[in-house]
Write a structure and sequence with these properties.
It is built from 3 helices and 5 strands; from the N terminus they run ααβαββββ. It is an alpha+beta fold. Strand 2 and strand 3 form a beta hairpin. The protein is elongated, with a radius of gyration of 18 Å.
Length: 136
């Protein structure tokens, strides 16, 4: 009886931590992809002397628990020459200016309608700009 109670207490502590670690690992897609987008923008600027806007892909409304297919025809992405290696859990877009760009990635992996937001630009590799830590 005591052993069962101890196992129950251990499970009550371990399961929420495990779920949070899973969500954090899935959210790690955002900074990884934003680094790739940043590198592609720098290469694009070197070749064409400017940055390029890229439309939301696959779209902020599609962000959730399920992975989404990348839209190969979304504006700007084919010209930029960057796409992920498969399905994505986040949505990405790029707003370009004359001397800089802002790439944004958002996700809502726990479906609580609070989106985790990461950004990257020419001077910043990747920054978590979410309102608080623990947002997935």
């Amino acid at each position: 009886m005591i052993v069962v109670a101890i196992i129950g207490i251990m499970a009550a502590v371990a399961v929420p931590n495990f779920v949070a670690l899973q969500l954090k690992a899935k959210r790690a897609e955002l900074p990884g992809n934003l680094n790739g987008i940043r590198t592609a923008q720098i290469a694009y600027e070197a070749a064409y002397e400017g940055y390029i806007d890229c439309a939301e892909n696959p779209g902020h409304a599609a962000v959730g628990k399920t992975q989404q297919a990348w839209n190969l025809t979304a504006a700007g992405w084919a010209d930029l020459g960057w796409s992920p290696d498969g399905l994505v859990r986040g949505s990405y877009d790029v707003v370009a200016g004359a001397t800089d760009f802002t790439a944004t990635g958002v996700s809502d992996l726990d479906a609580d309608r609070v989106q985790a937001t990461f950004q990257s630009n020419l001077g910043t590799t990747v920054a978590n700009i979410s309102t608080a830590e623990g947002i997935y």
